[in-house]
Fold each of these.
Amino acid sequence: MLQRRKFLELSSIGLSAITFSGFTSKSGNPAGKKPIVISTWAEGLNANKAAWAVLKNGGRAIDAVEQGVMVTENSQNCCVGLGANPDRDGYVTLDACIMDEFSNCGSVAFLERIKHPISVARRVMEKTPHVMLVGSGAQQFAVAEGFPLESEKLSPDAERSYKKWLEKSEYKPVINIENSGNNLKSQSAFAPNKLENGDWNHDTIGMVALDANGNLSGSCTTSGMGFKMRGRLGDSPIIGAGLFVDNEIGAATATGQGEDVIRICGSHLVVELMRMGNSPEQACKKAVERIIKIKGDKARDIQVGFIAINKRGEYGGYCIQKGFNFAVCTADDSNILVDGKHIL
Ligand code: ASP
């Protein structure tokens, strides 16, 4: 079932000189473009617009990926940010991370009552000697940096979903799988990632961008799994798992069952696979295959999707099961939703 292609193993010596020639377009990937921004799921279309406003004016990729996902964090009608589903105790807890072209990175996790975790992550990166702040410490830092403490009240959508979940209070910590038949009947054309019962089927936006100067950056922000155990973190705030950027090679981000992305250091793996000469799509595919190999039959119960761009502006994405999509923007009039290829 898994189609494994032997890929060229390149020596780690003299990488910057040889990795570029190692990129391949044999997979049929679109020709590389610069600038470019890509992001996970249909919400990525709106997020890309904000990122593109920065990129088209020659702005830095790091500003683009922050501005971009802030749109999604802001939306009360979405799965990310304070409007999202709470944990099983009824609190919305947010995770985010960001990484720039110099390998600077910042992250916050288990952050409550702050609207823009991605911007707090950026402050951690820029204003502290650390990479990660969590929980009340992250909140304290955010408030000290001037971020307002928002209300604890759930959004109307989240409150309705939480009440429904409380009826059974079944702890099933599995990310929803679009189109798999577990709980998705159809997707609305207006909110393609919303389930028929009104629930959102995922809780993350990951974005990676290459700016006009050829520099890469990425961001990832999430409320994590809906109705998760209090204190649970997924991959999204973890540099190397939910997001990784190497300005010589490429950038990758992940969505889906965070535990299984962490297990393989997913985004770092995708970038390293690109370093070995794989196209972004091939690299994402091989990372997905590795999860499937580990999970065996249980892979059918989960979803993971990766997206990546390389230094040339070529992009790709791959997922375990049907239903994952990502948004690709290369011009004012070119912001498209692409279906991720899938293995199962
Ligand atoms: N990866 C996120 C997590 O595990 C969830 C998602 O992508 O929907 O927290």
Amino acid sequence: MKDSVEKRIQNLREELEHHEYLYYVLDQPEISDAEYDSKMRELQDLERAHPEYQSPHSPTQRVGGKPREGFVKVPHSSPMLSLDNALNETELRDFDGRVRGGLKDREYEYVAELKLDGLSMAAHYRDGRFQQALTRGDGRVGEDVTENARTIRSLPLRVGEKRKVRLAGAVFEVRGEVVMEHRSFERMNEDREREGLPRFANPRNAAAGALRALDPSITAARRLNYYAYFLLRDGRPLAASHWKNLEMLEEAGFKVNPYKAKCKGLDDLLAFIHKWEGARDGLPYEIDGVVVKVDSVAQQDLLGWTAKAPRWAIAFKYPARQASTVLDNIDVQVGRTGTLTPVAHLRPVSFSGVTVSRATLHNEDEIERLGVQIGDTVLVERSGDVIPKIVRVIEQGADRRPFHMPSACPVCGSHVVREPGESARRCVNTNCPARLRESLLHFSARGVMDIDGMGDALVDQLLAAKLVHNIADLYWLTEDQLLGLDRMGKKSASKVLHNIERSKAQPLARVLNGLGIPFVGERTGQILADYFGDLDKIAHATDEELQQADEIGPKVAASIRDFFGEVRNGELIEKLREAGLQFKSEVKREKPIGVLAAKTFVITGTLPTLKREDAKELIEQAGGKVAGSVSSKTNFLVAGEDAGSKLAKAQELGVVVIGEEDLLRMLEAGKD
Ligand code: IVH
């Protein structure tokens, strides 16, 4: 019987590893997240019931173990040095000249790779299994971040068990870059803002913070990525060329950045460098240049190292997308949830081809953190697709004056509040015109209700003519009303009405997003729709019921309850219902609620302490089912003393047999 459990565990691990590889390394998932989760849950349950089969290399270990007190320092196999920089073409030409000289005019090739802006990490493998991860530290001694690194899904925990690759079963070391994508970075900062913590200035700092978190579950939540660029054994490259090493890494299941090229000389290098300078904004992560390496390891050896960097490689740095300018003023914008955001007005400055005159300051804590005042000269940064932001004060202005957030809404004059634990101030007036304007724009936006043509200009006209007082009013607009607006012809009026009509078919998830409930955006809207499948159920759900849905915590639940508790919003919902919007959707709930969700149990024999009825009730409360007889659908047989034919049947079918103690442990595990 044990054998079959072990086999199932092995199969699940292999399947999960395979799907993690497809998802995190190749970006080509073959199964849904829900299917993945359910396999993961099955494996977790089995490992919990059979601690003897637990393994640090199991995919379940990626969720983050126990917090630690600090990091142990460990020397590197060979120094993790840095690279010299080339800041322009001339410096790159000089580098190429030195390489040519050093190689005495022998033929050579370069490999060009993107220089990912993260932090480097070495990962050690023994018998093809992940053993230890070290940060760069001071280059000679790094910090042991093994437990945190385990949570990075693109870092294989075992290589090539099935696909007999060359690295299977081998001892080797991989070096590469830990990066955080813009998306995760934004989400992390939003979370921090909600918790009243200061924002991270850039994805690199955020990645460093996440990798060095004392609690691995924090690292796990941050969705870091690992891109491998060196393959070593005993501190030396494994294959004879860098390109070959990259290929072997790919083959073994590591994520290697696909944007790389073999280059014959300076022209090839420059073409690669220029191409990516133009395209860097389209990448999901930040890059700050291109790394150029001599391909042949023998030639690398010939060129050797200086005290701090290899002579066979260089980092071509892109000009920083930073510029300094004067902060002329700060004004305050009111968003659709009533949040007041300070916006910096800058003396227009142009860098990397874009003129910037405004930057976000996020909230008053951020202003305090920066110590910035009106009149100061500041450093402004544009990175990726992120809105320009102020990095720091360069020089204090002679006539500088501090900025204070207003205590009344700058648009409607209503009272402004700052909830405990939040860094934002909010206008309390749900009818604030600024909020209404932003709510209409958000509701109509692409990806929400998709009402084409409902942009700034039309919304402003509708508000000025007092034709709409809330989002539902859009559905009662008439052609005559629209024709009464400036520059509105019959054709555009009927187009707008058509688009409004068409939006009624948008699914519930989008309606939920469109309502503008604080903390409920696209993702949470989808989670709520999938879980409840009915707007009325969401509106009437208790805090606890709301929190049963994935990722919904107390704060979001409270916000949803507040929204639907408001009389005015109740009326709004009724008008939207009358208009015919989609209030229902298919429930896509993977599991009933609870730790034992979707698990079927059979109980047999006399349990040491629990009566059979009590055990049944406990299982059902945790979302499990209790059946009368063992079948292939049974997940667990809870066997007590004098278990008879059911035990035999379970053993025959390979059903997992557990005792009362195991059952209690499973129930307990779900409580934290
Ligand atoms: S190779 C001897 N390749 O840039 C050190 N580094 O300035 C060789 N980096 O510390 C490093 N992408 O953190 C290399 N494709 C890449 C890289 C890369 C980013 C970082 C790395 C390193 C720094 C060097």
